[in-house]
């Protein structure tokens, strides 16, 4: 499965970059007995449903020409949504100053959960509130959505 993800990422990278669209994640997994290739994309200001539909068609054609998948699949191109997982340094930079919830693999300052505003990010760590958290210790992180 990783081979498919790598191949798809290489095939679509230039096309997305030329459109100033970020590939947030690629998920290739079996759903209800068949394979689903889900591409989560975003851009500054957000991505529209029409843009996702257009990308779905364009990327579908590109993948068909290149025969990128190893078995029949369903392609889905969508926005990661407000509750998207925060994984990379870039994800945290994008939401600098906003409140997030972080769950770590092991306790940091005797806690596995931390909430607060993102104050600092570099390639190795993020500071949430008063807590410094190495990026490789983060199990899950999401933006806190206020209703």
Can you characterise this structure?
The structure is a single chain. This protein is α+β, with helices and mostly antiparallel strands. Helices cover 28% and strands 41% of the residues. It has three helices and eight strands. The strands form two sheets. The chain has a five-stranded antiparallel beta sheet. It has a three-stranded mixed beta sheet with strand order 1-2-3. The protein is elongated. It starts with a helix and ends with a strand. The model has no long low-confidence stretch (mean pLDDT 89).
Features:
147 residues, alpha+beta, 5-stranded antiparallel β-sheet, 3 helices, 8 strands, elongated
Summarize the structure.
The chain has three helices and eight strands, in the order αββαβαβββββ.
Radius of gyration: 17 Å
Main-sheet strand order equals 7-6-5-4-8
N-to-C SSE string, H for helix and E for strand: HEEHEHEEEEE
Distance between the termini: 38 Å
Q: Specify the overall morphology.
A: elongated
Approximate strand percentage: 35-45%
SS summary, helix count: 3
> Poorly predicted ranges (pLDDT <50, ≥5 residues)?
none
Helix fraction, binned, reads: 25-40%
What value does the average pLDDT take? 89
Task: Please describe the topology of this protein.
Layout: H1 2-18, E1 22-31, E2 34-42, H2 49-66, E3 73-78, H3 89-94, E4 99-108, E5 111-121, E6 125-128, E7 131-134, E8 138-143
Parallel strand pairs: 2-3
Antiparallel strand pairs: 1-2, 4-5, 4-8, 5-6, 6-7
């Amino acid at each position: 499965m990783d081979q498919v993800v790598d191949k798809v990422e290489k095939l679509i990278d230039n096309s997305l970059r030329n459109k100033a669209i970020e590939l947030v994640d690629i998920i290739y997994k079996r759903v209800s007995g068949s394979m689903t290739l889900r591409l989560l994309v975003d851009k500054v200001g957000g991505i529209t449903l029409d843009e996702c539909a257009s990308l779905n068609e364009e990327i579908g054609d590109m993948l068909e020409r290149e025969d990128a998948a190893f078995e029949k699949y369903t392609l889905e191109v969508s926005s990661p949504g407000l509750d998207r997982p925060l994984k990379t340094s870039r994800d945290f930079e994008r939401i600098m100053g906003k409140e997030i919830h972080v769950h770590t693999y092991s306790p940091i300052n005797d806690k596995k959960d931390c909430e607060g505003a993102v104050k600092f990010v570099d390639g190795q760590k993020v500071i949430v509130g008063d807590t410094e958290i190495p990026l490789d210790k983060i199990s899950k992180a999401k933006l806190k959505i206020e209703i």
